[in-house]
Amino acid sequence: MIYTVTFNPSLDYTVSVNGFSAGKTNRTYSERLFPGGKGINVSIVLHNLGIETTALGFIAGFTGEQIEREVQNMGLFTDFIHIKEGFSRINVKIKNCEGTEINGIGPVIRQAAVEKLYGKLDKLQAGDILVLAGSVPAGLPSSIYGNILQRLQKKGILFVVDAAKDLLLPTLPYRPFLVKPNLQELQELFCVTLKTKREAAIYAGKLREKGAQNVLASMGGQGAVLADATGRMHFLNAPKGMAVNAVGAGDSMVAGFLAGWTGAKDYAHAFRMGVSTGSASAFSERLATKEEAERLLAVCPSIESTL
């Protein structure tokens, strides 16, 4: 079973506004409300691809209830922990205003709630996959992902971590199966500027040296790089298409990679599936469907691989 953990789920309110102007009343001409958070996105896309998951995490208040209701209505399994104080965040995303977003804070998660999560995670078994993705609310230590891997390291679980620098680095000594930095995150990890996939591959390799088994680095329109557990480097250009929605593309890439790997146990195939699924979400108003991902997989460019 694949389990995803989203510490800070959200209701994403995505709107389109003509001629947005700060300090004035702006009116939308389209709007959507849907559950968000990186782990939840991974679960949704895996479900779309025909792979069942259990979505874990923390929800609070009326927004938390709506998140849970929306996710369950999609047919997903959930096992959220309900926080009594506060409410789950609402993120406002203005599509046609240079990617403008206003992201909420989220509830305070106290240690007693964290212990409840630990209790659920302790039940995972060898062969299960645990995806830790996204930010955590203020008040939780940046070591929280590392703490989880340390706690579960001897259970034979495969760990996937998709998080920024401070959350990612403490996990590396526990050899996560997959980490997925985007280009900006990879640059921030090593305080460098990277312009090409070849340059990104060097630093993906450095993350492997620090402990990650597989490093999947997404580079937007340039494509992606995979430094796999065998020591090979794989390079892939992005499929051709018009990007209309960047929200969830990276999460979709993680889901596609896991779907490809669990099916074939082949890193190159998993890489192509990951890039195709991530691109399918970027080319759609919603997260990728199985049909959209498979359509792009059929025309996905060839992989260039090196030792």
List how many beta strands DSSP finds.
Answer: 15
- Oligomeric state of the chains present here: single chain
Give the number of helices: 10
Beta-strand percent range: 15-25%
The rounded Rg comes to 19 Å
Strand-pairing-aware structural class: alpha/beta
Describe the main β-sheet briefly.
11 strands, mixed
Shape: globular
In words, what does this structure look like?
The chain is an alpha/beta fold and about 300 residues long. The chain has helices at about 40-50, 60-75, 110-120, 145-150, 165-170, 185-190, 195-210, 250-265, 265-280, 290-300; strands spanning about 1-5, 10-15, 30-35, 55-60, 75-80, 80-85, 90-95, 100, 130-135, 160, 180, 215-220, 225, 235, 305. Strands 1, 4, 5, 6, 9, 10, 11, 12, 13, 14 and 15 form an 11-stranded mixed sheet that branches. The chain has a 4-stranded mixed sheet with strand order 3-2-7-8. The longest helix is centred in the C-terminal third of the chain and has 16 residues, at about 250-265. It is globular and about 55 Å long. About 45% of the residues are buried. The model has no long low-confidence stretch (mean pLDDT about 95).
